[in-house]
What we know:
Layout: E1 5-14, H1 19-23, E2 35-39, H2 46-55, H3 59-62, E3 68-70, H4 88-91, H5 94-108, E4 127-129, H6 147-154, E5 158-160, H7 167-179, E6 185-190, H8 192-200, H9 205-228, E7 229-237, E8 243-244, E9 247-249, H10 251-256, E10 266-270, E11 274-279, H11 285-293, E12 298-300, H12 303-308, E13 321-325, E14 329-331, E15 343-344, E16 356-360, H13 374-383
Parallel strand pairs: 1-6, 1-7, 5-6, 9-14
Antiparallel strand pairs: 2-16, 3-4, 7-16, 8-15, 10-11, 11-13, 12-13
Helix pairs in contact: 7-9, 8-9
The structure holds zinc ion.
The site of zinc ion has 4 residues, from helix 8.
Amino acid sequence: MPAKKKKLSLFLFIDAFGWEVKQRHPDFLKGLIQDSKPLDTILGYSSACDPSIISGLTPSEHKLWSSFYYDPDGCPYKWTRYLRLLPNFIFRRGRVRNQISKLIKKVCGFTGYFQIYAVPFQHLPLFNYAEQKRIWEPDGLPCGKTIFDRMAQEGIPYFVHDSDVGDAARFEQLTGDIQRRRVDFAYCSLGGLDALMHAEGTDSPKIEKLMQWYDGKIRALLDTAEENYNEVSWYIFTDHGMHNVTGSYDLASDIEALGLEWNKDYVAFYDATMARIWFLDERSRTPISQSLGNHPKGRIISNDELRESGTYFEDGQYGDLIFLMNSGIQIIPSFMGIKPCKGMHGFNPADPDSLASLSSNQRIPAHITKIQHIHQLMMEELTLEGDAPSEPRTNPKNGAPTKRNPSTQ
Ligand SMILES: [Zn+2]
């Protein structure tokens, strides 16, 4: 049997495996996790958090925050305005909206995750879509570089998940690459837990079953990794936690009741937990600010708070006013869905249920406290062996394997 490869760094992302969720499943990877800690998340959704994890940048820096933003001139799918002429009942169907999402993605050449969700067809041409490129590849961000840019530049062979297949297939593909010792680094995102908790809430017994399945899959994966590499560092992490939804609220009706004209005085995008308002005519600012400023179901996020969380955009790209719902209350109907979920994230990042988590077989340095710091961990993992950046690591003859002191694990 050929000699083992020297080192594998494994970054497994379990979507919505927040700190509170982790506490409820103490048997998950019991005996293997050496260190774990909660991490602060970022206000918003995975569309904001995931680019931050892989770049170390905040949304204000990499320019990806929510999915849609007001940009009627730049919108690349303006032709969808004709869809509004077709009967409404057709377009409320999820299957139809999925097909139309696929069509827009193809026509516009988007390579990233694209979904029109429940954005009304008459409003769709007003909004551009932020994540047009697949972020898990080099050049995936509008601004800044990710770990994938860095690895491509240095010729480091890596695995990254295929977003078009389910978790089981992702494990299978990753296991194959590890068995063939093809990679030095792996980043694998797993979406099953997030989807299950959206549908069932955080208390469903099905979650324990799924965590047991992940436990088995990850243990087998780590065994395979140990068989093929002298040294395996692994990190299991997420970008946010999950709240149970305790109620819903029709926020759009409150705004509409102010009697202002849509797309003349103002435009709003209703995310699941946030409303983002653009003031097209300054006269709309006072009534909307007053209405939302004294609202029993949520609060306006101040610019200072946005700055602090790295989600302030000076040019108002994602809205001139950001309103966040009280934790647990989902906007229904929103442009992201017309029916409430049982679980939702994207509420106040300071809530315990919002916290992300990080677990590892390595000691986690004290300075790693926010999700965007995971990027530093990845960088440290990749530079530990001290190869010069210009020296590609794809050549297996490239130097004798060096083994780090196992006592540091
Ligand atoms: Zn989610």
